[in-house]
């Protein structure tokens, strides 16, 4: 197959970029031709606020460029990974005009929620879910704390609901979990068009030994990730188990303060993927304390690949990935006392945790390998090919 992958890169590389690139590499290794049409958010500074706003709603540049590319070369399908903000939904129309099927991966909740993750004021927020015009987002300046920027985003969402882009210009959607699929269906997206395909880990990093004697957090240091819950739980645990934290973000000062007060907490900042795998493999367990809705939880399956159990909040997609008492444990989201209780249980039940390591690795081998992912994406692609 010849596939055109469309992606708007973020300024700070994240899990979405990693997952998209892994998918493209896999397809290429299996003999498919994958070409890319990309934008980069580094351009925003040069474009300025007005031009960026216009592009967010409808990028004529992207529309013309994509139509030209589709005329010049025959593609079996266009796979849109991320179009926000500089590419815009105009690319869906360009593909439709040229008669090329469109797949859209939904790696966040941007089409339902202005900030993309159903989270506001340190809590889950669904105020805009199901509203044709997402006016609560504008009221609360949900996108980057800016009413002007939020206005641009809500204009884009409302415009393409009116057209209606999402029902007519996309042949198939891909969500990463059943939880995310259910949210989009709840919002009115056609259920028959939404398939589930999780992320995967490739190449296989192989199971670790788990002999490091520490707990590990890997992720963005931001409120929705449950950083406050994590740090408060470790205050309550005293020095029962060291905690290593990998990541950067707006709550870095809070993490730095916790490190200064507790020598049992170590902040490692941003680390390369091989370093992260090494840390995960040596950890007794990974902590995933999110208090928001995750669409997936890539670091959890990376932990499974290393055979490391996950202690996770029972909320959103992560509660779907982690099966309590089999490949990890659940605790009540935003509840540091319950997290501390689950950590203490893990520390006092070494045999059960050893079995969880085997189950975690088995979960990876069953669901999250490149082989299984390739099989699933080919099934989805087959549904739109004419």
In short:
It is built from 16 helices and 14 strands. The chain is α/β, with parallel strands linked by helices and 386 residues long. The longest helix is centred in the last third of the chain and has 18 residues.
Layout of helices and strands:
Layout: E1 2-9, H1 15-29, E2 33-40, H2 44-57, H3 60-72, E3 77-82, H4 90-97, E4 102-106, E5 119-120, E6 123-124, H5 135-140, H6 147-162, H7 165-168, E7 172-175, H8 178-186, E8 194-196, E9 215-218, H9 227-237, E10 243-246, H10 252-261, E11 265-269, H11 273-282, E12 285-288, H12 298-305, E13 310-313, H13 316-321, E14 328-331, H14 336-348, H15 350-367, H16 370-382
Parallel strand pairs: 1-2, 1-3, 3-4, 4-7, 7-8, 9-10, 9-12, 10-11, 12-13, 13-14
Antiparallel strand pairs: 5-6
Helix pairs in contact: 2-6, 3-4, 9-14, 12-15
Q: Could you characterize the architecture of this molecule?
A:
This protein is an alpha/beta fold and 386 residues long. The protein is 45% helix and 16% strand. The chain has 16 helices and 14 strands. The strands form three sheets. It has a six-stranded parallel beta sheet, sandwiched between helices. A six-stranded parallel beta sheet has the order 11-10-9-12-13-14, sandwiched between helices. Helix 13 links the parallel strand 13 and strand 14. It is globular. The protein starts with a strand and ends with a helix. The model has no long low-confidence stretch (mean pLDDT 95).
Distance between the termini: 12 Å
Largest sheet: 6 strands, parallel
Q: State mean pLDDT (0 to 100 scale).
A: 95
Helix and strand composition category: alpha/beta
